[in-house]
Each structure stands twice: as C-alpha cells, then as structure tokens.
Amino acid sequence: MVPDYWIRLDRELTEEDISVLIGAAGGTYVPDGGRMEPENRWEAPAIWVARIKGAKLSEWRVYSDNEPIRAKMRKLDRTTG
C-alpha cells in the first residue's frame, strides 16, 4: 500500500519510563495493481509514545493525522474502482 513508507524523528523527550518521539511519517500510496506516482505522495505529523517497564516495552501509542493518505485513497478509489 505504501512501499516507500518512512518516518522522520525531529525530537525525542524522555523522562523516567516514557519516551515521546516527535516527527512525521509519509510515503506514496499505491492502490492494488497501481504504480508509484509522485502525485500520490503524502506526509503527516506524528507522535510516538513508548513506555518501558523493566527491560520491556509495555505500551506503544501512535498519534497521527491520517487524513493526508485517506484523501489520496478516496481520490484513487473513485478513479480506479
């Protein structure tokens, strides 16, 4: 669906057992049977939150605005479906 998916971390905040990573995620949406096209690239701000208990990850949360990729999906589904 997004073969060139990427994340960019711009800032990290850590206090005790919690780390907050701030950045962005993006890539190119490719519908089934489609090709990677430059106009289908998207990017959205994102925040990842990790909580560590002992030596293990106990909680992982992702906060991101999914509307940029959803808009690409809606547009392409109308034209290809």
List keywords for this structure.
single chain; Nuclear Transport Factor 2, Chain: A; alpha+beta; 81 residues; 1 helix; four-stranded antiparallel β-sheet
Q: Can you tell me about this structure?
A:
- 17% of the residues lie in helices and 53% in strands.
- It is of the alpha+beta class and 81 residues long.
- Strands 1-2-3-4 form a 4-stranded antiparallel beta sheet.
- It is elongated.
- The two termini are 16 Å apart.
Head-to-tail CA distance between termini:
16 Å
The residue-averaged pLDDT reads 92
Number of strands: 4
Mind telling me which CATH architecture this is? Roll
User: Which bin fits the share of residues in helices?
Assistant: 10-25%
- Indicate the structural class: alpha+beta
Report the radius of gyration as a whole number of Å: 16 Å
Shape: elongated
What's the helix and strand layout?
Layout: E1 6-15, E2 18-28, E3 41-53, E4 56-64, H1 67-80
Antiparallel strand pairs: 1-2, 2-3, 3-4
What is this structure, in a nutshell?
The chain is built from one helix and four strands; from the N terminus they run E-E-E-E-H.
